[in-house]
Amino acid sequence: MHDTNRAIAGHDEKHFQSGELVRDVVIGMSDGLTVPFALAAGLSGAVSSTHLIVLAGMAEIAAGSIAMGLGGYLAAQGDAEHYASERTREEREIVERTRDEEEEIYEIFEEYGVERSESASVLEALKRNPTAWVDFMMRFELGLEEQEKGRARQSALTIALSYIAGGFVPLLPYILMGQASKALVVSVGVTLVALFTFGAVKGRLTGAGAWKSAFQTTLIGGVAAGAAFGLAKLLNKM
Amino acid sequence: MHDTNRAIAGHDEKHFQSGELVRDVVIGMSDGLTVPFALAAGLSGAVSSTHLIVLAGMAEIAAGSIAMGLGGYLAAQGDAEHYASERTREEREIVERTRDEEEEIYEIFEEYGVERSESASVLEALKRNPTAWVDFMMRFELGLEEQEKGRARQSALTIALSYIAGGFVPLLPYILMGQASKALVVSVGVTLVALFTFGAVKGRLTGAGAWKSAFQTTLIGGVAAGAAFGLAKLLNKM
Hints:
Chains A, B: It is a multi-pass membrane protein. Chains A, B: InterPro entries: Ccc1_fam (IPR008217). Chains A, B: Pfam families: VIT1. Two copies of one chain form a homodimer. With 238 residues, the first copy, chain A, is mainly alpha-helical. The first copy, chain A, has one domain (24-237). Chain A has nine helices and no strands. Chain A has helices spanning 3-9, 13-44, 50-96, 98-110, 116-128, 130-141, 151-176, 180-206, 210-237. The longest helix of chain A is centred in the first third of the chain and has 47 residues, at 50-96. The N and C termini of chain A lie far apart (60 Å).
C-alpha cells in the first residue's frame, strides 16, 4: 500500500539507496542552481565585465560545494558515531539496568493506550533475543536508524558534485560572453528553465507533485536572484 | 537515562522546541559564517578594492539566506502536507482494509522476533482506540512525526537570520577597511575565532563534544576559504 514510503523508509534496500542518492542530488543541486545564479545576477547589476562575475561565481561554487560536502560528511559521521555510542549504551543497560529498560518498553506502549498486561508478551519475546531488544529500543525509544557503511563519504561527494553541476548552469553564459548585461539575460533564461525542469523531476521523484515542485523551485531561485540583483544595484549607487 | 536524546526526540515539549531552534541556528550560521567568508577571501585573491567584495558578499548573503530560508520553509511545509495526507490515508485504511493493517502490525513486530501470538494483545489494545492505532502506524510503520503548527515559518526565519548574522562577521572588515589585502587578514582572524567559538558552542549543545566540533567547524571554513582563494587567484591569472 505504502510503496513509496516503504521504499523511502528503507524496507527495500535497493530503493533505499537510490532514495538517499536522489535526496543528496536534490540538496546539492537546489543550492547550486540557486545561489551562484543569484550572486551572478546580483553582480550583473553592479559591474559590466563578466570577468569578475565568473571569478566570484567560481569562488562561490568552490566555497559552497566544499562547505556543503564537508559539512554533510562530518554531520553523517557524527550521526554514525552517535548511533554507535547509543547502541553500546543500550547493550549495557539491558544487562545492567534490566528493570529500567523493561519499564521503558511498557512506557512506549502506554503512550498508545496499551496496558502493561497487554505489552508484557512483547517484552518477553524481546528478552529472548537481546539483539532484537536493542534494535527495538534504538528505533522505538530513541528513533535512531543505522547508516550504511561508507554513506558519509558517498553523500558528501554526491552533494558537492551536484552543487558544482548546478552552479555551472547559470555561470556558463558569463564564461562564454563578454558583456554582463547580455550574459545576464541568457543566464536568467537558461537557469529558470533548469530550475523548472529540476523542480519537476524532483517533485516526481519525491512524490510531492511535478508542477507544484517546479513552480516552487523556480520561485526560490527567482526571488533569491531578484533580491541579490536589487541589493547589489542599491549598494553600487551608495 | 537518555535525557539528551529524549529532549531531542521530543519527549519533553520545552526541550524539544529549544532543540529545534538550536538546530536551525546551527544550519543557518554554519553556512553563513563559511560561504561569504570563503567568497570574500577568494575575491581578495583577485581584486584590490573592497567595494566589489562587499557588493559580492552582500549579494551572496541575500541569495544564500533567501535560498536557505525559503527552501527550508517549503521543505517543512511539504513534510507537514505529507504527514497530513498519510494520516488521512491511514485513518481510512484501518477502517476499509482492517485486515491488511492488522497484518502490518504483526509484521512490524516480527522484524524483532516477536511471534504473532505475542503481539496479538498489543493489536487488540490498539483496535480499542483508533486514534492511538493511527498514531502508532504513523510512527512505527511510516516513521513520520507530526510538526508543531507554525514550525515552517519560524524555522525559515531562524535559518535566514542566522545566515545573515553569520555572514556579516567575515564581511565587516571589508566594509570598514578600504584595502582588500588588509581586510582579508582581519577577516580571516575574526572569522576563524568566530568559527571556533560557534563550533564549540554547537558541540556542547548537540552533545558532540566542544573541542572536536570547534576544530571541525574551523576546518570546513578554512578549507572552503583556502580553495576559493586559490581558485580565484588562478583564474585571475588566466
